[in-house]
Write a structure and sequence with these properties.
Blueprint: H1 5-23, E1 25-27, H2 28-35, H3 39-51, E2 55-58, E3 61-64, H4 66-71, H5 74-79, H6 82-94, E4 101-104, H7 108-117, E5 124-127, H8 130-137, E6 143-146, E7 150-152, E8 157-159, H9 161-168
Parallel strand pairs: 4-5, 5-6
Antiparallel strand pairs: 1-3, 2-3, 7-8
Helix pairs in contact: 2-3, 6-7, 7-8
């Protein structure tokens, strides 16, 4: 079966990005063995991926950039290191007392915190996170205020002056 060379390159580079997303770092030597290509090929792949802003080259390999991390969709980011995020969420929730008012920003760790907050009662929640608002909005004793503004649907949050102005009044 004939595989187009461009397709092979795309498959190889996507595999590099998958490993990078999972581990946060890749090494030229281990990628060479795993992908069964030369170190020159791997270095070329890493250089092209760096030009595209998908990673940052370091001596002997590459690391994930923040731009690459934030371009992951919410579900993939939520699942990355989920057990640590759950532990942080649990610890943060333990600091909260029933009846308090909280501001919760968007993010996957704050999403896990929101899940843990469900064991509380009578919380007032201000958030710019669509996922946090949906997660806590049906809790019978919570008052959830989703801050307005423009919606960033890729990352599931609101932003701008309309999101910030109500916070000034609190």
């Amino acid at each position: 079966m004939f595989i187009d060379e461009g397709l092979k390159i795309d498959i190889r580079r996507n595999k590099i990005l998958e490993i990078l997303a999972r581990d946060g770092k890749v090494r030229v030597s281990s990628l060479r063995q795993l992908l069964d290509v030369s170190e020159v090929t791997i270095r070329n792949d890493l250089s092209e991926l760096e030009k595209a802003g998908r990673l940052e080259r370091i001596s002997g390999g590459a690391i994930q950039t923040m731009k690459n991390f934030y371009n992951m969709d919410f579900q993939r980011r939520k699942n990355r290191k989920a057990q640590f995020k759950q532990a942080i969420g649990c610890a943060a929730s333990d600091l909260v007392q029933d009846g308090e008012t909280l501001m919760i920003n968007s993010g996957t760790t704050t999403f896990f915190t929101a899940i843990e907050l469900k064991k509380h009662k009578n919380l007032n929640i201000l958030t710019n996170s669509l996922s946090v608002a949906v997660e806590l909005g049906e809790h019978p004793t919570f008052r959830v205020i989703l801050l307005g503004g423009e919606i960033n649907s890729h990352y599931s949050f609101t932003y701008g002056n309309d999101a910030a102005d109500p916070v000034k009044e609190v």
